[in-house]
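Q: Structure tokens for this one, please.
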Amino acid sequence: TLVLEILLGVLIYGMFTRTLSSTTTSIVSNSGLIKQVAIPREVFIWSIGGFQFIRFLLSILIIPPLLILWNIELTSSVLLIPLIPIGVQSLAMGMGMIFSILHIHIRDTSHVVSILTTAGFFLSGVFFGMRHIDPSYHDTFALNPVAVFIEMGRSFATGNYDILQTSYVVQALGFSFLALLLGCVIFVRHEAQAIKLL
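A: Here is the predicted structure, written as tokens:
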């Protein structure tokens, strides 16, 4: 099951990283098109989120066969794995909207995001999970929404919910939806002024 845990960690964190990195640079990367065509700038953000969502769905098709191959009981909870992007993409796109505006003003923002996502890779439990750390640190570990979503994916795949607490899930979703709301507000308020700097 360790290989399964790592696989899910890589898939979920990879989706988060690619979405955040791509949305951060989306406005600057499409500056030529933005200057020529009157198009809502949010389209670039949402199209990236949608593409990464579909890519994730295609990637997890391998999970059921692997569960059967490794003699892990295949439960109906595996059907819940496609719900994971709701939280992950809300967080990534919300942060990406904020960083995309910042990237227009400070072009090194993308490098900072790259450093943060690399550090986050080791802090989000991609190669380890809650069951590998002392229970006294679970609350602190759960402050990282991506780590909670990775744990959710593992729980959905195996049907084991012993470690994953409902409060962690609610907290992670709260952080993610708040990030998306905040990102939308900041993007709408500042994108028109920021576009002039392209």
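A few notes: The CA atoms of residues 94 and 180 lie 4 Å apart. Residues 166-195 form the longest helix (30 residues).
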